[in-house]
Amino acid sequence: MAGFTINTVVVSGNLTRDPEMRSLPNGTPVCELGIAVNDRIKDESGNWTDRANFFDVTVWGGMGDWAARTLRKGTGVTVEGRLRYEAWEKDGQKRSKVKIVANTLVPRDGNASGGDGEFRASRSDVPVNRDDFAPTPTPATVGGGSSGPAPEDDIPF
Questions:
Q1: I need a surface site. Which of 15, 59, 111, 157 has the fewest CB within 10 A?
Q2: Do residues 70 and 113 make contact, with C-beta atoms less than 8 angstroms apart?
Q3: What is the CATH architecture of 9-39+49-125?
Q4: Is the pLDDT of residue 152 over 60?
Q5: What is the pTM of this model?
Q6: What's the pLDDT at 153?
């Protein structure tokens, strides 16, 4: 399909540092965190070894505020979100990275400090005035379906 793109990623790993909270001038909470995700590969001798992949994650709004208050370094989390490319220049060197902007953040094993370990948030917690924000279509906005949530076995596309 011409013009149709999908930008979705799901990773599950452990936080590499305590979440770092800040607020935009308009008061919107923004939380930055890091996650390490292991990948198993075979080395030259045929043995399986673990290799860590590190990702920076941005968590907006109420979900970001919750993450900063309850999650700590080492907490196991699953993040569903979208990839965002960022580029900048520092000391005359061009730099870039791909970050994950979280749509959903769920702690694993109930090991978040405080809370019940079952917080789930959606893009409704994300500020709608961001330039890079594109709302997720709902069944109500795609094909004029009912305004309630889609059944779990009903895929909305």
A1: 157
A2: yes
A3: Beta Barrel (2.40)
A4: no
A5: 0.66
A6: 53
Please check whether residue 156 is in contact with residue 142, taking contact to mean a CB–CB distance below 8 angstroms.
Answer: yes
d(CA 20, CA 65): 10
Cα(136)–Cα(104) distance, integer angstroms: 12
Dig out the tokens for 131 from the structure.
Answer: 């330039």
For every residue of the chain, which 3-state class applies, written as one string? CCCCCCCCEEEEEEECCCCEEEECCCCCEEEEEEEEEEEEEECCCCCEEEEEEEEEEEEEHHHHHHHHHHCCCCCEEEEEEEEEEEEEEECCEEEEEEEEEEEEEEECCCCCCCCCCCCCCCHHHCCCCCCCCCCCCCCCCCCCCCCCCCCCCCCCC
**Pairing assessment for the beta strands 93-107 and 48-60 based on DSSP bridges:** parallel
Which range (61-70, 80-89, 97-106, 137-146) has the least confidence?
A: 137-146
Q: Where are the domains positioned within the chain?
A: 9-39+49-125
Query: Which residues lie across from 34 on neighbouring strands?
Result: 56
The backbone torsions φ and ψ at residue 43, rounded to the nearest 5 degrees and listed phi first, read -85, -175
How many whole angstroms separate alpha carbon 127 and alpha carbon 114? 25
Return the structure tokens found at 114.
């405080």
